[in-house]
Every structure is written in structure tokens, then in C-alpha cells.
What we know:
By secondary structure, the protein is of the alpha+beta class. It contains 7 helices and 22 strands. Among the domains are: 202 residues, Thrombin, subunit H (Beta Barrel), CATH 2.40.10; 96 residues, Roll (Pdz3 Domain), CATH 2.30.42.
Amino acid sequence: xxxxxxxxxxxxxxxxxxxxxxxxxxxxxxxxxxxxxxxxxxxxxxxxxxxxxxxxxxxxxxxxxxxxxxxxxxxxxxxxxxxxxxxxxxxxxxxxxxxxxxxxxxxxxxxxxxxxxxxxxxxxxxxxxxxxxxxxxxxxxxxxxxxxxxxxxxxxxxxxxxxxxxxxxxxxxxxxxxxxxxxxxxxxxxxxxxxxxxxxxxxxxxxxxxxxxxxxxxxxxxxxxxxxxxxxxxxxxxxxxxxxxxxxxxxxxxxxxxxxxxxxxxxxxxxxxxxxxxxxxxxxxxxxxxxxxxxxxxxxxxxxxxxxxxxxxxxxxxxxxxxxxxxxxxxxxxxxxxxxxxxxxxxxxxxxxxxxxxxxxxxxxxxxxxxxxxxxxxxxxxxxxxxxxxxxxxxxxxxxxxxxxxxxxxxxxxxxxxxxxxxxxxxxxxxxxxxxxxxxxxxxxxxxxxxxxxxxxxxxxxxxxxxxxxxxxxxxxxxxxxxxxxxxxxxxxxxxxxxxxxxxxxxxxxxxxxxxxxxxxxxxxxxxxxxxxxxxxxxxxxxxxxxxxxxxxxxxxxxxxxxxxxxxxxxxxxxxxxxxxxxxxxxxxxxxxxxx
Length: 596
């Protein structure tokens, strides 16, 4: 176990100052077989027998070699006085050194490093002290007859023990301290030994400077490495903070942009609702009727105009007013624009100035939705109505109102001066706003059925005009009853012209009295009552004043014409007339005449 350890003087071979020379001689020499041992010996009993009841005795020290030089550690006269009382038993550490030796070296296994990783030696660790070179003990310090073992050639010599404090003085005042081995000159440092996985531990060696701890076999990072890691962690933290800040700023910025910023006013608003509406509401009526309503742009010789119409059937027939298509004449252009935005060119089918109605037809258009027709005889005053048109070329304009009156006799036109272009209408009056551009558009009931064709308005300071000039609506609009429009449209589609019911008499339009008076002579030189006509057969004579038609009072010649044209040719009428201050009632069947 002690192979490779240098031989040094044992404690029992050191001189004891208080021992007398005679006592050392009595101890005798060392056993002869000490050369075969490691310096240990067995203490011999005292030469003089001692009484067992005489108390304790003190062991004698072995003799020191004669050539050992003893140098007192402290002068005899100046030895310090011990701080404790002398120990009569000389028991270490308070007494003299006893029969004990240093503990054998303990081997502690080190952590096995990772394959290929070397454990740094003590000399490679910064700040660690370099162990001094092993010094061979002097030959005079060895025990006589015991050769000093040489260190093993492969294992490095253990470091020399650090100088120890002087041993406490013995009770004798002149006792010198044991000598310590003289340090030798430092020898050249041997080459660094290979890493030893079983590091030797010497409990008496000087404590080495603390080195880096080793837990998994890898070296502990140096200060520079720790600084680099700190800088990397700082940079990574800064980048992470920038990313988080940027993301948060983006989210906040997006929210502020969409919501108008911080502190702005955000008003409450209703959510999205269904686009469907009840069928009898204005919105519901408009949703169903708008796809069938069109806008007409007419151009002719030096004239142009805009109006409205609606689809009659899936063959492309469209009904509108005569004064809307009049600028086109016989060689003009008519462009029809549907509610979807599609356009198509149209041709004139027929028109009639007396009824102010016309029919055009578009070609090459499929999927047309005809607008259903109602019955104007069922309309009552106060019924809700909806008007659709393109006032001032604003297509798809929807207005609403009620039926203000029925059978309003109105006349329109008359620009020619001969009365041939005057229209006589037994109209429906409405307060639904109708403006220039609404002409020819439909007047709808609560079921989205056509009950009239918007034709004229009365504006402030003017009479009833086809387009009402440019004054706009004042709540007085007039529409041709759909019953009359249906008959005229069918005749225009089938024959190209319409027929007018007639009584066969000539009226005095200058008569200012109440009723319609039959002229006394024809303006063209003919008889005022057509020979063989309906009036002549009923007994009407020149100068008679007609006051009622079917029980309805008439106040002028225009009203009589309007009431008459509200019927079809062949219808029977009952007239009340005055002749010579007396009233009489006659019945007649209406005749027919060609329209223009």
C-alpha cells in the first residue's frame, strides 16, 4: 500500500530532549527484522517490572539514529508557555506525540468524462497552485538498515507536506521541536501526467485553490464564455421583445384603424337584416315591379326625350305614352334600358294621340317579365298606390301615395292648334309624386298590379300638361285607367291603330253654360248631327244640351268627350238632355271612328 511513497523520518526516531542518555541506551537497538518491514515496530515492555497496582506508566520512545541532527525549533530560554496544563499521560495532541501515524491515502473515483474529453490537470487550471517537485529525503534521515524506496517510475511523486506549525512544547522547558525536512531546490517540473481517473487524495497536503466543479465530465465555461452567453441572451431577449412589441403594435393599430382610434365616438347601429319585405309594402311592391319597368330614350329630327314604360308580354311589347315616342316620328331611334342595365333597340308598333298611348317592341331580348294588369273599375279613392318612373332621367325612381280622385276629365296636348293631338282622359288622380320622365310609367296597387298609366301632372301656373313642363310635382298627378289602356294597347298591337267611341254629334266648344251643347252648325259646313249616326237615331237635335251621361253630371263639352271615350265602341249610354226648357232621356249605342 506504501509503494511509491518516499521514506521519511518517523516520529519515534526523532530525538526527545528530555530523555536522558542512559534511558536511550536502555531502549536498545531496533529489531533486526526492521529492514523487512515498513518502519513499524512493536513496543517492548519496560526492563524493570512494574507493579500492576502502581498506576500508569509512560512508554519510552525508541532511540533516534546517532547521525540525526537535531536543531531546536525554539531556544530553551524562550520557549512559549503552553496555554493548558501539562498532560501527565502525554496523550496527543496535548501531550507528547503518541503511537499514531498518518492515515493511509484514500482513493476517490472521479466522474467518468465523456468519451474523448480529457480532465484538466491541476496545472492547466488557471489560478491553481503548481505542486512542488518531489524531493528525495536525505540519506541521514532514514532509519539505519532500512533502504529508502524509490518512487514508482510511472506514478508522479506526491507533493511534499506543507510546513506545519511547531508542536506544542513539552513540560520540559528546553525541549526542541521536531525538525522538518529541509526544502530542496526546485527541480524541473516533470511532464504533465496523463489524466488519472482515480485521483489520489492526500489529507495532509496543502489545500488547493478551488477549481471549477465537474459534474458531467465537461469543462465549466470560462468567464469569457459566460460573458458571450450573457451577450447572446441579451440580444435574444431584445429581439424577442421587439417581435412581441411589433405584433402588439400591429394588433392595436389595426383595431384603431377599423374603429376610428382611441376616444372616438362610435354610434350604435342595427345589424344586417333580411332583404325580403312584406308583399303589400312599398318595398315589396317595388321589388316585384322594378324588373318589368323600362326607361325609353327617344331621338328624332331635332327632338329628343325621356320617358318610362312597362312590359306587357314576353314577346317584347312595351306600353308607354304617345307624347314620349312622338319625337322619334317615323324615322327616329328608340332605345330601351331595362332595370338590370341592359339596353335594346325598339321599334314603334302603333300610337294614338286621342288616348295618349303607344306601343313599342324590343327584339332579341329573352326572359322578360310582364307586369300584371289590374282593374281600374275596382279602384277606390284612398287606396294606396305606387308610381315608378325615370323623372329627369333618374331610372327606377319609386314614389308612393293614394288615389285622390276618380274619373277626372283632363285634356292634354293640342300643340298643333287644330285639336287633332288633344288627348281626353277620364283619369285617376293621385298625390304620388310624378315628374317629367315619369310619363308612361305604371301606377300600381297594393298587389303590384297596374291600375293606371302615368300621363300628366298639374303644376303651378299651368294647366294639365303631358310632361308638366319642368315645374315638377305639386301632388296632382293623373293616370290613364288601365282598362282603357288595355283596350287601346290590344288594338295597337293587333291592328296598329286604335278606335274611338263616338255619338255622332258636333259640340259647341265655346258654350259657357252648364252642360255640353250640340252645335247649331258644323264648322266644316255639314250638319251638327251625323245623319244615320247613333245620335240621330236616338233623336238628338242641334242645340240640345246634354247634362248627364249614365247619371253622371257633365259641365262641358270636354267632359262629355272624356265620358264617352271611357267606353268602348258598341257600349250603350243613357243621356239626359234639355230642349226648350224641358229634360228628356235618350239611349244610344256608341259608334266607332278611326284614331290618329
